[in-house]
Design a protein that fits this description.
The complex is a heterodimer of chains A (403) and B (392). Chain A has 17 helices and 5 strands. Chain A is of the alpha/beta class. Chain B has 2 domains: 245 residues, no CATH class; 119 residues, abc type-2 transporter like domain (abc type-2 transporter like fold), CATH 3.40.1710.10. Chain B has 392 residues and is an alpha/beta fold.
């Protein structure tokens, strides 16, 4: 402890700490805004990326995926089935072929993304009260093609099947309500919650939005640290105040600068963008704001702790850009968290983005409250504490080293 | 003339190799990142499809029939009942917490209604906020309930004395015979990794190429770089990038071997075509990185630019969300991404197993990217001579 601090009374000591923090806070703003590269990452990227990706995925789902049909039966029954399939919103019959070869050629040319093949005995089997078969061939290059054709053919065949069933039951002397009950003794109703249209953007974008905040903060902060390391002015900021607690003032001052900027950006990214682009937004803004504080703090301290190790301003982006993808999968928004193996799950708990994505989806998309995300909320605060301590240690080490 | 060009190139290669061993970023940005991704993605999706996802049952009936149904449900491949809950609200809360991805609600009087032909509805709630879990579970549970329905139907028909040979025709008049071309297991690894691994590869090619050239400008050694190549910018760029062409092509081919041989992912024509595609793909991305470097010979700007372009590649490959569903104006850009052409070749050759003629246009497109550096030939040379761009 330096001698000057001994003589201060507690109040004036606190005032001097606050003054230090404010001056570091102000200075950090100047540093951020005088660096074009950092401005691009912090401001332009945070503004442009959410809008760009929402724009690209705005169609949400596939409609009228072109398919080919081969109708070897060419009867009233087979034409009826094809009309049902064509009428579904998912697919559209783009090509009527006379042979499987012809359909296969169109499939290989990727003019159609599926084939429905009705065999010659289709009508005969229906008339004879046997089971008729319909073959479908799905393009697996994108699972959305697969889903479109499966949905369209399943529902159409189910509908037509019911008509046939009813006739056959009648023929067996089962009629009226009793036929209906036999037809479907336990009707089931599938209800998709929170993303009724099974939209792709509604599913993907909430995760991307949090990832944008996490990654722009990380790259921006590490670019700032890399630059100060290049210019060897790391110690300049602190040297005059290197008494006990000096490092903390620097860390807190800088963190507050990033926090205050990102509170504003986050309002745009997490609250305005979902409304503007009609993504799910059934959570309360207040709950989002409350989870945002620990998420931003954890991300800031995480970035500051790691940033110290980057020797140059570009290094972090070159080495860790690919990690955005890893974080996206680790977050468990697509491949469910319950099925991530123990090793990767434990690994994923290191990153604020993972808890941030889960917390945001649970509030914004699923309409949860702070109570719902208790695990994520606590984890983010624990991360905040741990990364703050690590930042303090590595900053101190860095400052000592550069002297 | 030719001899001097060769010696200029070999000089540059030697110089670049010395630079590469001088700093760890060269090893990290090439081999280590790709090695990490190989391990990560291959272990992450090893299950193929998410199995035994947690679901709940809200059984208000608690009859032998509803318990039988729950047992059947528990035996399906993709769901596992982890909770038995009393109310709908409780189940919805668990769903919001992410503890379950679906729940089945069975109302009171279910069994009695089935017995008396009153057709009680079975309600299946799935969480489509997590779309993959939600849609897989809906399929799984619907299938299970159709089977349950079928079993009840069979009993009723037998009781009514319907001839056994006619029963299946009544229960299921039309059968679907599904062929999932190239990926009969609907395996997520096959679907994603074939594009994600080349996707990471293109990110690293772009960034490392830009770094290799850009660091010369930043450190003000570009002049020396050019002199060492006997003032031929062609030799300077070729010699500098050739080591990376070899490293990244090797990494790309290793990734092909891992996917198509080690993991036994579908490869319905010769794996050789994918090797050739991979080499062309590496060169195409190097050419694009040279173009970016020529447009802005400032390292930090070209890193930001290539990062932006490289990330967009994942969208424009069009594998998760097909290109034709993108807004019209943005769709036209897809041809500007080599990863799009790579994807087309992979679908043709590996997944669909068509003849190579189908892939000639994308192969030529990949090759055509190599023209791009010509546009910045003079600009890059002038920048190297004058070194008149800001460093930071």
């Amino acid at each position: 402890m330096s001698t000057s601090n001994h003589n201060m009374n507690p109040l004036s000591k606190w005032i001097s700490i606050a003054k230090d923090i404010i001056s570091i806070y102000r200075n950090e703003f100047k540093v951020v805004f005088s660096d074009r590269g950092v401005v691009i990452i912090f401001i332009i990227a945070s503004l442009v990326y959410p809008a760009l990706y929402c724009g690209l995925y705005r169609n949400e789902t596939l409609v009228n995926t072109p398919i080919a049909v081969v109708d070897n039966s060419a009867t009233a029954q087979s034409r009826k089935l094809l009309r049902y399939i064509d009428a579904s919103p998912d697919v559209q019959i783009a090509l009527r072929c006379t042979s499987m070869d012809e359909a296969h050629k169109a499939f290989d040319n990727r003019k159609v993304h599926g084939i429905v093949n009705i065999p010659a005995d289709f009508d005969k089997k229906i008339q004879k009260n046997e089971q008729a078969t319909v073959s479908i061939y799905c393009d697996m290059s994108s699972f959305l093609y697969y889903r479109a054709l499966m949905q369209a053919s399943n529902y159409s065949i189910l509908d037509m099947g019911k008509e046939i069933q009813l006739k056959r039951l009648n023929a067996q002397g089962i009629t009226g309500q009793s036929a209906e009950a036999t037809l479907e003794p336990v009707p089931f109703k599938g209800i998709g919650l929170y993303n009724g249209g099974m939209g792709f953007a509604s599913f993907l974008m909430p995760a991307i939005l949090i990832l944008i905040i996490h990654q722009t903060l990380f790259f921006g902060i590490s670019m700032l640290a890399g630059t100060s390391r290049e210019e060897n002015r790391f110690h300049v900021l602190v040297s005059s105040k290197l008494h006990r607690g000096g490092t903390f003032r620097v860390i807190i001052g800088k963190a507050l600068c990033y926090l205050s900027m990102y509170l504003i950006f986050s309002y745009y990214i997490l609250i305005l963008v979902p409304k503007l682009f009609n993504l799910p937004h059934i959570g309360l803004s207040m709950d989002i704001f409350q989870m945002l504080i620990p998420f931003l703090l954890a991300t800031i301290f995480f970035s500051m702790a790691i940033s110290v190790f980057f020797p140059n301003r570009e290094t972090s982006m070159i080495i860790f850009l690919f990690f955005s993808l890893i974080l996206l999968f680790l977050s468990g928004f697509s491949w469910p968290q319950s099925n991530i193996n123990v090793f990767w799950k434990t690994f994923s708990w290191m990153f604020p983005a993972v808890h941030g994505i889960q917390a945001y989806i649970k509030i914004n998309t699923l309409g949860g409250t702070l109570h719902t995300i208790r695990f994520e909320y606590l984890s983010l605060w624990i991360q905040t504490c741990i990364y703050l301590i690590i930042t303090a240690i590595v900053y101190r080490w860095q400052i000592k080293r550069s002297q | 003339m030719f001899q001097s060009l060769i010696s200029a190139i070999t000089n540059t290669i030697g110089r670049e190799l010395r630079r590469m061993v001088s700093r760890p970023i060269y090893l990290i940005g090439t081999v280590l990142v790709m090695a990490f991704c190989f391990v990560f993605f291959l272990t992450f999706f090893s299950e193929g499809q998410p199995n035994k996802m947690p679901i709940a049952i809200v059984d208000k009936d608690n009859s032998s029939l509803s318990r039988q149904f729950a047992r059947n449900l528990d035996c399906t491949q993709q769901s596992e009942i982890v909770m038995k809950l009393g109310t709908h609200t409780e189940a919805r809360r668990e769903m919001q917490k992410g503890n379950i991805y679906a729940f089945v609600e069975i109302d009171k009087g279910f069994a009695q209604k089935v017995m008396t032909n009153q057709r009680p509805t079975l309600k299946i709630y799935v969480n489509n906020g997590y779309l993959i879990a939600g849609s897989l579970l809906l399929k799984d549970i619907s299938y299970m309930s159709a089977l349950t329905s079928g079993a009840v139907q069979r009993q009723v028909l037998r009781a009514r004395g319907v001839d056994e040979s006619r029963i299946m025709g009544i229960i299921q008049p039309i059968v679907i015979d599904t062929h999932q071309i190239g990926n009969p297991w609907a395996n997520y690894g096959i679907y994603l990794l074939n594009v994600l691994l080349p996707g990471v590869l293109q990110l690293m090619i772009l960034l490392m190429t830009v770094f290799a050239i850009g660091s010369e400008f930043k450190e003000r050694t570009a002049h020396q770089w050019l002199e060492n190549a006997e003032n031929s910018i062609f030799a300077a760029v070729t010699g500098k990038l050739l080591p990376y062409t070899i490293i990244f092509s090797t990494l790309g081919i290793i990734s092909n071997i891992l996917l198509y041989r080690y993991m036994q992912y579908p490869m319905n024509s010769s794996i050789g075509w994918m090797f050739i595609t991979t080499i062309l793909y590496v060169m195409a991305y190097q050419a694009i990185a040279i173009l970016f470097m020529g447009i802005t010979p400032v390292l930090r700007d070209s890193v930001t630019l290539t990062a932006f372009y490289g990330l967009l590649g994942f969208t424009y490959a069009g594998f998760t969300f097909p290109i034709e569903q993108l807004p019209y104006m943005s769709r036209i850009f897809s041809d500007l991404f080599p990863i799009r052409h790579y994807f087309n070749i992979y679908v043709n050759q590996a997944l669909h197993g068509t003849s190579i003629q189908m892939s000639i246009i994308p192969l030529i497109s990949l090759l055509a990217f190599n023209i791009l550096p010509l546009f910045v030939y003079h600009r890059l040379k002038n920048a190297a001579i004058h070194q008149n761009y800001p460093v930071n």
